[in-house]
Each structure stands twice: as C-alpha cells, then as structure tokens.
Amino acid sequence: MKTDVLVIGGSAAGIITAVTGKSNYPDKDFLVVRKEKQVVIPCGIPYIFGSLESSEQNVVPDKVLSKAGIELKVGEVVSIDPQEKVCETADGTQIHYEKLVLATGSEPRLPRWLKGAGLENVFMIPKDKVYLDMILEKLQDFQKIVVVGGGFIGVEMSDELHKRGKDVTLVEILPHILGLVFDEEIAAQADEILAARGVTLRTGVGIQEVMGDTKVSGVRLANGEELAADAVILAIGYAPNTKLAEESGIPLNKLGFIKVDEYMRTECPDIFAVGDCAEKRGFTTRKVSAVMLASTATTEARIAGMNLYDLEAVKTFSGTIAIFATAIGETAFGAAGLTEDAAKQEGFDVVTGSFQGVDRHPGALAGMHKQLVKLIVAPRSGVILGGEVVGGSSTGELTNLIGLAIQNRMTVGSLFSMQLGTHPLLTAPPTAYPLIKAAEAVVKKIKPAICALPH
User: Fold this and answer.
1) What was the pLDDT predicted at 449?
2) Residue 52 domain-assigned?
3) How do residues 404-446 score in pLDDT, each as one tens digit?
4) What range defines the domain where residue 357 resides?
5) Phi, psi angles (nearest 5°) of residue 362
6) How many folded domains does the chain comprise?
7) How confident is residue 388, by pLDDT bands cut at 50, 70 and 90?
C-alpha cells in the first residue's frame, strides 16, 4: 500500500493536518490511520456524563475526511521505519509514504504510586468511546463518586455527574480547583460556584490510597480522612502518547514529547508531529511546556499541513500561549498566557489591572452576567503577558481576543485605545467595557511615555 502523506492518529490534530494538507497540496494522496472506529470530541467528553444523552452526540463524523478526498483506515500502526519510509499496522499491512505525520495524542496518566489504583470501579478518562461508554453504563448504578483532580476534566466531570443526581466529592491537592490555570482570587470563585452547585470539595489535600478488596469502597486522603465511594475517577492529567515514536528512533525531549521545530518537523527527514504528542514551548518564556490543548493541536496541525512540501517563513508556530476556558453552571472562566503568579515565578516584573462590569447594557436586561477582566502586563514595555476572564457566555471569545493580543505582542495602550462595536444584547457597555477598563487600570500604574497611545 502506498500514499503520499500518511497521518497516524485521527483526532483533532490528525484530522486538521490531513484536511489542511489536502487543501494546500490537492494533487497529493492523503491517508489517515487511526485505532478507533469512532473518534470522540475530546473537549466534549465530560458532557456525555450529564448534558448529552449519549456519547453518540459527541463524535467527529468521518465525512469530514471523505468530503475532502482523504482516505481512512481503521487500524493500529505498530512500527515505523524512517529510513525506508514504511509503516506496518497490526494486521500486517505495510504502508509506504513520502511524508509522515504523527498525531498520536495523549493518554491519561496512570498513578502507579497510588495504592488501590487497579481496583474495580477505578476509572480514568481516555479519548476512547468504547471505554467511556463502559464507564457511563457502570456509573448508572453508583451513587457516591469521588473525582481526583481539580483541573478542567475533573471539575467538568464533577459538575456533570452531579447533574445526573450523583453524590460527588472532588479532591484536589492544590488550595483551589483550577489552581494551575488561574490566580488565587479567581480560582477561589470557582471553588465557591462549584460548591454552591452541590459538589463537595476537598482542596489542599491529596489522595493517599483507594480502599477496597477487589472493588472500590472508598478513598483515604493524605490527612487521614476517609471518604466512602462506589467509584473513583482519576483525572490527574495526561501524558503524551509517544511510545511508537520512541520505538522507531524518533527523538523525544526531556518531558517525553516528540521534538519538533517551528514547522512541526521532527529530527527525522519527512516526519512531522502535531498535537498532544508533539513538543511545546511557551510563547513568552520559550521554555519546554507540557500544555496540551485541542486548540493548540489544531494550530500546529494547520502549520504542518501547509508546510508538508514547501516551507514558508510566515507559516511557523511561534509557541504555545495556553488559552483555556471552562464553565461551571452559568459562570465561565477563561485564561490566556501567563497568570500573575506564573509570570512572577518566571522572574517577570509585572503590573496588573482588573475591572468588573457587566456583559450587557443596561444591567437590567435578561441574561446579563457580571464580567471580570484581569490583565498581566510587563511595565517597562507595556506588553500584555496574560489575562483572565470571569463572566457569561462571551467569556470564551473575550479570552480568545486576549490571546490574539498576546500573540501579536500588543501593548496595554493598544487595548486601552481599542475601537469596538457594542450592542445592549451582545456586549458590555462602551462606557465601561471591562477589557478596556482593565487596560486603563494598568495604564494608570505605568509610565505614560512607555504606554503612549498611538497617534
């Protein structure tokens, strides 16, 4: 079997690489090989446990590939020979290629140190529809569920399971849930909202062991507290799925990601890597990063797809900004770039500015939500390093706007003088637009000459 471009992995990064590549090189043949019969939408996984009726409502249709003229093979690639440019699948099929893209994703971290992690009814959250359906079926008969890990997946899983009437306790070793992504004052708001919705929080304490003989009966925390449980969900992060690359001699970095350059090329000729398995570097610090996001994966995929055969200087990936968003009930939380704490830990001198207003005007309109914006800025240059948002449904797009400002190295003065369109039903008022007012708060703190308004 032969193809021009072989993509291993059929989730977000693999799909977008193939579609972008086919669009840029329509004369080339593209083949996607993936293990799964059906691919789930990664960010939608928690919602099959509450808001959605089943996992069938959270799958990527294969017509995305077929409509673009891309061939699909369901199977597992078990070996790569970079010298001969050939891969072999588990059924013995050999696939020869000109260009190879690794989009093998990530897998849940298995806490081998945790006693009882192998007991029955201890679950993780992989991007595997069959496994997720199994969990969903089993959880129907359980009432007391302990979720370990207060990141996005743990928080969203906890909230969704509680929607289905489950008694949920969320355990997080940090002082607050979402504590790696938001500054303390904002993460504390997330604590309050999730607790008010009925999820029991145990923050500032880790888990010591999962108790039970063959099945889960509870968990013991590091402080000695014991919590009864019918099931335990471990949501303590993901690791890059790079075993195939490593076994094939494709170099990895110190964090276990496949080494790539800014065109997403590996150190092996004609082999690219994108998505969760590929190396990341922070946009501001340029340090190796472990951030894994579907949005980042698709950006990398577009870069790889455009550069498969012809390199262009403008088509490079300049680093991971890390743009996050989630929602707890009607309140959404978003962050882009560095938090204040992270910036200080990296040695940046920072100035912050915050403003809380409303996302509609007048505030008496139905559906109005408070909107808080916090900006983190380098004082001497005025360059925006990060931003955080708490608000309603517009939070995600406002966070994306802050991410764009960071990517273009905009100054806080540029935001302060930003021209914008507003409407009572759609945006905050022009007189008190929280993003602009937060920028104004920073402008007042730093030298006007450094943050001069454009003429």
Assistant:
1) 45
2) yes
3) 999 999 999 999 999 999 999 999 999 999 999 999 999 999 8
4) 323-443
5) -70, 165
6) 3
7) very high
Decide: residue 254, CB within 10 A, 0-12 exposed, 13-18 middle, 19+ buried. Answer: exposed
The rounded percent of the chain whose pLDDT value lies above 90 is: 93
pLDDT in tens, 275-329: 999 999 999 998 999 999 999 999 999 999 999 999 876 667 788 999 999 999 9
Q: What is the three-class DSSP state of 336?
A: strand
pTM of the model: 0.92
Whether residues 227 and 246 share a domain: the answer is no
Give the SS3 label for residue 347: coil
pLDDT score of 112 more than 80? yes
C-beta of residue 358 within 8 angstroms of C-beta of residue 421:
no
Specify whether 79 is located in the same domain as 143: no
- Contact, 382 vs 349, CB < 8 A? no
Give every CB contact of residue 67 below 8 A, 6+ residues apart in sequence.
none
Q: Is residue 264 part of a domain?
A: yes
Across the range 141-150, mean pLDDT stands at 97
Q: Is 253 within a domain?
A: yes
286/268 Cα distance (integer angstroms): 22
Half-sphere exposure (Cβ direction) of 331: Cα atoms closer than 13 Å: 17
Q: Given the structure tokens 């914008």, which residue do they identify?
A: 420
Residues 255 and 182 in one domain: no
Q: Which among 306, 337, 364 is the end of a domain?
A: 306
- Please identify, among 195, 217, 236, the residue that sits at the C-terminal boundary of a domain: 236
Report how far apart, in Å, the C-alpha atoms of 18 and of each of 6, 69, 317 are: 9, 10, 17
Helices 395-407/434-443 angle, 10° precision: 40
**Claim to verify: residue 86 and residue 141 sit in the same structural domain:** no
Residue 401: count other Cβ atoms within 10 Å of its Cβ: 19
Confidence of residue 397 (pLDDT cuts 50, 70, 90): very high
- The rounded Cα 410 to chain-centroid distance in angstroms is 24
Task: Give which of 319, 357, 362, 355 is closest to 338, Cα–Cα.
Answer: 319
Is residue 274 located within the same domain as residue 334?
Answer: no
Place of tokens 């969760």: 276
